Amino acid sequence: MSNCIVIQVGQCGNQIGGRFWDMVLQEHARNNKRGIYDDALATFFRNVKTNRAGCSNVEVGDGKGRITGLRARGVMIDMEPGVIDQIRRSPLSELFGEEQQVVSNSGSGNNWAVGNCVYGPQYREEILEAVRKQAEFCPSLQSFFMLGSLGGGTGSGLGSYVCEMLYDEYPEVYRFHAPIMPSANDDVVTSPYNSILSLSKLIDTADCVLPIENEALLDIFQRVTQQTETGVQARKRRMALTDSGDAAMGGMCGVGARKTHPFDAMNNIAANLLMNMTSSMRFEGTMNVDINDIVTNLVPFPRMKFLLSSMTPLYTLTDARPPPRRLDQMFIDAFSRDCQLIRAEPKTSRYLACALIARGDVEVSDLRRNIERMSLQLKFPSWNREGWKTGLCSVPPLGQSRCLLSLANNCCIRQNLDILHSRFRKLYRRKANLHHYTAHIDVADIANSAENVRDIIAEYSSQEFK
């Protein structure tokens, strides 16, 4: 039994985190109808009705469907109270004690330097104590999952500070970071600075970085809503803490009579990445993939740690009914541009390594057959021609019979990083808005961060053209 702690930082991180906790509860409730605290639940939750961390087979709730008596293995951090206040007013508040929340009212002003250099040291002990308490409840802590954005001040600045803090304090625990990359028409004028400064820190302190682009999520949302119909699943009402039973999205973001905001659905897609990625840890399957397998198999060089993620079928609501897909077609989709969580075309670039995690009605023979077929179409380096890692989880996602997650270390990520670097250079050449940062950090630190990102782009380019 492995345990994971989710640390959600800033407005974006807490919005995605809210959707993740909502949906993962629904998933466990569907597969744990007796309401028993088991190893699957213990990955992301602890039982607050016992002082024995990791105690198994303890009845939770009435044992008839509704799961209660849990605390999330998570920490919420934000320098503005808005999103965390929404969570506090929702059913999700039962998952988080006061000791799991680090909140301020001042905000970071969309400035990485304020989040990293001001609020980082100011709140270091409070954040460290919140993480320490969660770690003490974990009998087998294996990884930290961090959620946040690159474009803002808190998610990028304080988020990268927390990642560096975990690197120092918990060097043996894997650190996964899923940063949301800003779009080209982002309304935060300083987002290029924030992105480069944050990326530089993540290159040095995270074990795996799983970038997600806002533009790619919006593309997926628009495409999926044209292809799917949504409705209430055939599930028992109130079968999870957050499940109202009559809202298409369930939980705290249940849409009711109001129109669904695209960001609600976009956050669902990002949350699904974490759920599918950890499915083999939480549920039984023919070929389980532990989280350390991902680092070991997909990061061949310590600095080249950016993983492209894609999922198929894609759906934005927990009650979506996507058109049925043949299994072989799902494998084709997983490597297509349309299913990537960043705007990229991986098939035109070199794969350093790739992992496939299938859930539901999939056989080992299906995986092997399709890997053999795709290997003829994809480019792998000569030193890693069999660079595949496969996992098979018997439990399908909510509302689907099966799904496929692809995680790939692919050289095409250099193009997305280069776009961010180009946006940075346009501002930096003119020293625009630079004085907001030099009040807290030296100009040389900014230049070094840009060079660090430039170096990783060059490293991916060298592998592409070897």
Automatic annotation (TrEMBL):
<dbReference type="InterPro" id="IPR000217">
    <property type="entry name" value="Tubulin"/>
</dbReference>
<dbReference type="InterPro" id="IPR008280">
    <property type="entry name" value="Tub_FtsZ_C"/>
</dbReference>
<feature type="domain" description="Tubulin/FtsZ 2-layer sandwich">
    <location>
        <begin position="287"/>
        <end position="422"/>
    </location>
</feature>
<dbReference type="GO" id="GO:0005874">
    <property type="term" value="C:microtubule"/>
</dbReference>
<dbReference type="InterPro" id="IPR004057">
    <property type="entry name" value="Epsilon_tubulin"/>
</dbReference>
<dbReference type="InterPro" id="IPR017975">
    <property type="entry name" value="Tubulin_CS"/>
</dbReference>
<dbReference type="InterPro" id="IPR036525">
    <property type="entry name" value="Tubulin/FtsZ_GTPase_sf"/>
</dbReference>
<protein>
    <recommendedName>
        <fullName>Tubulin/FtsZ GTPase domain-containing protein</fullName>
    </recommendedName>
</protein>
<dbReference type="GO" id="GO:0005525">
    <property type="term" value="F:GTP binding"/>
</dbReference>
<dbReference type="GO" id="GO:0007017">
    <property type="term" value="P:microtubule-based process"/>
</dbReference>
<feature type="domain" description="Tubulin/FtsZ GTPase">
    <location>
        <begin position="56"/>
        <end position="285"/>
    </location>
</feature>
<dbReference type="Pfam" id="PF03953">
    <property type="entry name" value="Tubulin_C"/>
</dbReference>
<keyword id="KW-0342">GTP-binding</keyword>
<dbReference type="Pfam" id="PF00091">
    <property type="entry name" value="Tubulin"/>
</dbReference>
<keyword id="KW-0493">Microtubule</keyword>
<comment type="similarity">
    <text>Belongs to the tubulin family.</text>
</comment>
<dbReference type="InterPro" id="IPR023123">
    <property type="entry name" value="Tubulin_C"/>
</dbReference>
<dbReference type="InterPro" id="IPR018316">
    <property type="entry name" value="Tubulin/FtsZ_2-layer-sand-dom"/>
</dbReference>
<dbReference type="InterPro" id="IPR003008">
    <property type="entry name" value="Tubulin_FtsZ_GTPase"/>
</dbReference>
<keyword id="KW-0547">Nucleotide-binding</keyword>
